[in-house]
Amino acid sequence: MAPPLKIGIAGLGTVGAGVVRMLARRADAISARVGRPVEVVAVSARNRARDRECDLSGMRWYDDAVELARDPDIDVFVELIGGPDGIAKAAVEAAIAAGHSVATANKALLAHHGVELAAAAEAAGVALHFEAAVAGGIPVIKTLREALLGNEIARVSGILNGTCNYILTRMQEEGLSFDTCLDQAQKLGYAEADPTFDVDGFDTAHKLALLAALAFGVKPDPEAIHVEGIRSITLADIEAADELGYRIKLLGVAARIGGQVELRVHPTMVPKHWPIAQVSGVTNAVAIDGDAVALTLVGPGAGGDATASAVVADLCDVAAGRGGAPLGWRAASLQPAEKAAIRRHEGGYYIRLAAVDRPGTAAAIARHMAEQNISLESIMQHRRGRPHGGERAESAEDPAPVVLVTYATNEDAVRRAIDAIEIDGVIALPPQVIRIEKD
Ligand code: HSE
């Protein structure tokens, strides 16, 4: 049997400790299948004393991840520190410079610096694998990089953030507030250290940037993505969506439209009967539309074991000598991603207005929609007093929630109509606009 593949792991949180445990538990099966043992020989973390429920005996300990990355007696450096810059970036650069392959779960690092790191890995002849960076345990990187190579991809879309999907699911199923659900997601360990990254859509955008690179050969570039998070979604929207036959999901979408790749992340209303609408909790889903194969992958998007499973798969690939261009295309051949022109987006829209409850309001709203040539599929007005959902006694001063659903139109027309409605003073709170995906 070939000599062991020696691993150094920086970051021993739930994922790092999970990798150590999984490699120990599956040692015999892994070495039998990849032709050599895969052994963790060195680790680095902030707190040496913490009990991680994994056996670290016999492993070299480093306080400094960059020093671990330079250890001449490792073959692969596993980066589980996180963050787009700082120690994570310095350590990955040091590992590649030292001729070590890298496996990382760091989507922020690769979304911001993927092109230069991939180029460095290609030049050094080492692997840079990142299956764990996108959709946790779902093998979507391998699917795009290898399994669907024969396909021309038209669109990749999905639920890429477990925290957001968990929050939206619990709001919908249990009528809980956004804050309560976020708190739970943090306690369960799904959320990023700074949950802003989850709920404001940046985590999804980082993952989408990597999927778009693999699918379309565009440089990962978070700046090119139109990003909206889920903070503005209220129980009123969740209830209205339900009544209208939709679920609200935070989707990341990369689609080839004409000669361009449109990249966007935003809450989206999807018909209840679509498979993606039924993906609940921390589960992720990625739908890939190829010219030969269209498929949807569904699986755990966050959590220690699921993410560790993806890291271990990357390590097995290195052990078996499976590599290739990290981003699926040579780094030098990647094309710049163009900023999504969201005002040109076409589709149906859900618009919720807190209408001032007096004569003429409905007429004003309808007039401004008509002026922009927007045709309405449905109009729904609830009784006063629930501008953000929930129950309380109504007051004559309360606005009346009006929900409009448009037929296919474009975003520019919708924004112009809403601007005009706001100028008329017939709405009491900022409007809510959610894009709709339909059959
Ligand atoms: N915070 C991320 C999520 C973890 O909620 O999906 C996995 O990237």
TrEMBL record:
NADP(+) binds at A10, G11, L12, G13, T14, V15, G16, A17. The keyword Oxidoreductase applies. GO terms for molecular function: homoserine dehydrogenase activity; NADP binding. NADPH binds at K107. This is Homoserine dehydrogenase. L-homoserine binds at E192. Residues 11-131 form the Aspartate/homoserine dehydrogenase NAD-binding domain. Pfam families: Homoserine_dh, NAD_binding_3. Residues 139-315 form the Homoserine dehydrogenase catalytic domain. InterPro entries: ACT-like_dom_sf, Asp/hSer_DH_NAD-bd, HDH, HDH_cat, HDH_CS, NAD(P)-bd_dom_sf. Its EC number is 1.1.1.3. Keywords: Amino-acid biosynthesis, Methionine biosynthesis, NADP, Oxidoreductase, Threonine biosynthesis. Pathway: Amino-acid biosynthesis; L-threonine biosynthesis; L-threonine from L-aspartate: step 3/5; Amino-acid biosynthesis; L-methionine biosynthesis via de novo pathway; L-homoserine from L-aspartate: step 3/3. PANTHER family: HOMOSERINE DEHYDROGENASE. It comes from Ancylobacter dichloromethanicus. The active site is at K207. The gene is hom. It comes from the Bacteria. Gene3D superfamilies: 3.30.70.260, Dihydrodipicolinate Reductase, domain 2, NAD(P)-binding Rossmann-like Domain. It is an enzyme of class 1 (oxidoreductase).
